[in-house]
Amino acid sequence: MQPSTVRTLSDLRERFVEQLADVAADRQPRGLYEPIEYILRIGGKRVRPLLALLAARICGDDEELRAGMPVALAVETFHNFTLLHDDIMDDSPLRRGQPTVHERWDVNTAILSGDLMLIQAYEHLCAVPVRGRIADLLCTFNRVATGVCEGQQFDVDFEVRHDVSIEDYLHMIELKTAVLLGGALELGALAAGASAETASHLYAFGRLTGLAFQLHDDLLDTFGDGVETGKLTGNDIIRNKKTFLYLKTLEGLNHTDKQELIHWFSHSPADPATKVARVTALMQQGDVPQLVAQLRDEFQAEAYAHLDEVKGNPRYKQVLRELTENLLQRNS
């Protein structure tokens, strides 16, 4: 990214984190609010709130970020609420390298603190200064939040289904991942007073970018360098996750190889090294990584076409484009 873009994103992120620190600070009872402070403090790249802030700036938000900041806080609080509850569902011991809330405290605490985070997300939205837009913001947020929950359930269902199609998988990741990226942009635009058309184009840009982002993530999980990603290479294969890579590979195999792939995904050997090696070989046999990368790039090209239709501040449009390109070129 250009130095000016890095500085802009760094400034936006710093100002956002300052505001985020006050969400649960010093509030009582501590057994309810401390887990919220904890999960928000160990946050990652803050992509979703940055998208909300950039959309607001594109659409005319002022230097004080009066319109965009409440939306950014709402999006990040909601996102972390979903992670907190997802960790319970998955019985995950770690989140971002730190103990999950239900491990550090207990399941009941994680459920209750998560419930409050969802309420706080609505409180942030209701703090948007353009009062006439709050109804639109709440309707948009409800649509996005419902999609995320539906996507999570589809993902759970896919673990035991044997008839998952490529279309099913793309629909699932659209709901679970892409709609919140699109929603962050749409909400930021609406808060800043943008037209419905502009907000719609920004939502489409985020949704398509989210699809490209998840496909890139699938590629990194299976074919990335574990040292760079900080994750166990082939973890999706080890967990028998029916990703686009798996489904596309299954589609192109002959009967014998197809049965072998299904066999590998029906059990979990104590030493997964042979399984990972053989499954990745079957994927490469049909040039599946290249096909996934091609679809990723097609989604992103379509996303940029929507961004080109957005009328707004060209400087922040360029920052948004460079942020997106950086995410899709990452190795971790």
From TrEMBL:
UniProt entry keywords in alphabetical sequence: Magnesium, Metal-binding, Transferase
InterPro entries for this protein: Isoprenoid_synthase_dom_sf, Polyprenyl_synt, Polyprenyl_synt_CS
Signal sequence residues: none
CC cofactor: Mg(2+)
Domain of life the protein comes from: Bacteria
Protein family: Belongs to the FPP/GGPP synthase family.
PANTHER family reported for this sequence: GERANYLGERANYL PYROPHOSPHATE SYNTHASE, SHORT CHAIN ISOPRENYL DIPHOSPHATE SYNTHASE
Protein name listed in UniProt: Polyprenyl synthetase family protein
Species, as recorded: Neolewinella maritima
Lineage start: Bacteria, Pseudomonadati, Bacteroidota, Saprospiria, Saprospirales
